[in-house]
Structures are given as structure tokens and as C-alpha cells.
From TrEMBL:
PANTHER family linked to this entry: ENDONUCLEASE 8 (PTHR42697:SF1)
InterPro entries registered for this protein in UniProt: DNA_glyclase_Znf_dom_DNA_BS, FPG_cat, FPG_N, H2TH_FPG, Nei2_N, Ribosomal_uS13-like_H2TH, Znf_DNA_glyclase/AP_lyase
Family under the similarity heading: Belongs to the FPG family.
Entry annotated with the keyword Nuclease: yes
Source species taxonomy: Bacteria, Bacillati, Actinomycetota, Actinomycetes, Propionibacteriales
Protein's name according to its UniProt entry: DNA-(apurinic or apyrimidinic site) lyase
Formamidopyrimidine-DNA glycosylase catalytic domain ranges (all copies): 2-103
GO molecular function, a single term: endonuclease activity
Organism whose genome encodes this protein: Kribbella orskensis
Known EC number: 4.2.99.18
UniProt xrefs under Gene3D superfamilies: 1.10.8.50, MutM-like, N-terminal
């Protein structure tokens, strides 16, 4: 699933292409929006809120989308071939004089009043990539369930928004935290600060990097490295699911560097 940095970059590209420009054609291909037509309105801005995309349109409307596992937005020039997937996977097309934005496989796509965006993103905790990120609130949210595992708490977007499985896994490794460690036994300030620092460090590059080495096969400490040797100590990396379905996720950890205390 795309995480906060990936969504932030997508919004930045969309905003640079569409922001301040008139929509010359819109084509919503989901039943609930089949009759919606925003042509003639201007795209005022495209912003990220955690893993959510908010495309604000003049006259007080917002196109809200979420990529989840497979969704994506692609930008094309008029007349350029669309290569984001087969046509039946297209959920929306937004055109201006200079750009065509195509949303593929979007599991969440809806129109809301801009002044009521909180109905779709108001449940989120502080956004780790927001300039006005509320660190104290994020820590308080995490601490509210002290017996919960740190893995589940970091992934819960109601606590703080933007962390996905990659960052959750790598943060736990870098802080020496076993994935099943309880929140009450964790330095939550350190976990929040490191999460924010890692997300911000990857804003300007396409790949997600936790090791500081942006080369194929060297970008992660433990994420998706099950059965391989730990880069620090040589112990075999383990993997298991954590959490309850349908919210369970695969976790990776080094049993030596992240002992089960």
C-alpha cells in the first residue's frame, strides 16, 4: 500500500499539473458519480492528508480518493497513450488544456463538500508530513492503548497518519523494538520522531530508503528480507503476521537486534 511519502509525491505532481487550471472535461466511471460533471470548474489545489488525496475544485467541492493497495494516478499529455492499465480499470479522467489525469483502480473515489472534508479524513491522527504536525497529540494517541503492540499502534491512522508497513517495520528495527512489544514499553517520542524523519527523507526520491543506501537490494534493513541475513549481525530475518484480520500485516524482524523482552 502506498504510504504517506508516496501519496505526497503524487499530490505534488497532480497539483503542479492541474492546480489553478480549468477542467475542460471530467469522466467519472463509478456508478455513484456517473452523472457528475465538473467541466468548467477550476482545480484549486491537490493536497495529501496521510494516505488520502484531496483534489479541491472551485465552488466548494473536493474529489476524495484513496489508493489502498493497487490504486494510482497517472498524468498524460493530450493525445498521449495511456499506459496505467487496461481501460476497464479506469475510475476517473480529469482533463485540462495541457494535461490529462487518469485514476486507475481507485477503491475510494467520491465527491464531498470541501467544508465537510472532515467527514472523510477527520478520523485521522496528525499527518507526519504536515508542516504543523502535532507531535504531542501523536504521542498521546499512541499512548492511549498501552497494551497494544507498537506495530499495530504505528499502523493505526487514527493515531498518526502516513505510516504503512514499510516504515512501521523499519522503524521497529532501527529502534530495536520487537514487533510485539507493548506500547507502554516504548519510547514513543523516539518512534514518532524517527517515523517523521524517515518519511521526510524520502520525499524527493522515488524509492523508499531506510538504510541510507539508495541502491536496489540495499534500501531496507528487514522489510521484505525474510530468510536473509541481518545487515548488522548476520542473524536470519524472521517474518510473521501481526494483528487481527482484515487489518493484519506481515512483519519482518531480526530476533537478535530486536529481542523479545
Amino acid at each position: 500500500m502506498p504510504e504517506g511519502d508516496t501519496v505526497w509525491r503524487a499530490c505534488k505532481r497532480l497539483n503542479e499539473a492541474l492546480g489553478g487550471r480549468e477542467l475542460t472535461r471530467t469522466d467519472f466511471r463509478v456508478p455513484s458519480l456517473a452523472t457528475a460533471d465538473l467541466s468548467g470548474r477550476s482545480m484549486t489545489e491537490v493536497v495529501a492528508r496521510g494516505k488520502h488525496l484531496l483534489m479541491r475544485v472551485s465552488d466548494g467541492l473536493t474529489i476524495h480518493s484513496h489508493l489502498r493497495m493497487d490504486g494510482s494516478w497517472h498524468l498524460y499529455r493530450p493525445g498521449e497513450s495511456w499506459k496505467g492499465g487496461p481501460e476497464f480499470q479506469i475510475r476517473v479522467v480529469l482533463e485540462t488544456a495541457d494535461w490529462v489525469a487518469v485514476g486507475y483502480r481507485l477503491p475510494v473515489l467520491e465527491l464531498v463538500e470541501t467544508e465537510k472534508e472532515d467527514t472523510v479524513v477527520g478520523h485521522l491522527g496528525p499527518d507526519l508530513l504536515s508542516p504543523d504536525f502535532d507531535r504531542s497529540l501523536a504521542i498521546a494517541n499512541l499512548a492511549a492503548e498501552p497494551e497494544r503492540t507498537i506495530s499495530e499502534a504505528l499502523l493505526d491512522q487514527r493515531n498518526l497518519a502516513g505510516i504503512g508497513n514499510f516504515y512501521r517495520t523499519e522503524v521497529c528495527f532501527l529502534l530495536g523494538l520487537h514487533p510485539w512489544r507493548s506500547v507502554s514499553s516504548v519510547d514513543l517520542g523516539a518512534a514518532v520522531d524517527l517515523s517523521r524523519r524517515l518519511l521526510k527523507s524520502n520525499l524527493r526520491r522515488a524509492a523508499q530508503v531506510a538504510t541510507g543506501v539508495d541502491r536496489p537490494g540495499q534500501r531496507t534493513w528487514v522489510f521484505e528480507r525474510a530468510g536473509k541475513q541481518c545487515r548488522r549481525c548476520g542473524t536470519t530475518i524472521l517474518t510473521a503476521h501481526i494483528g487481527e484480520p482484515p487489518q493484519d500485516r506481515v512483519s519482518y524482524w531480526c530476533p537478535t537486534c530486536q529481542p523479545d523482552l
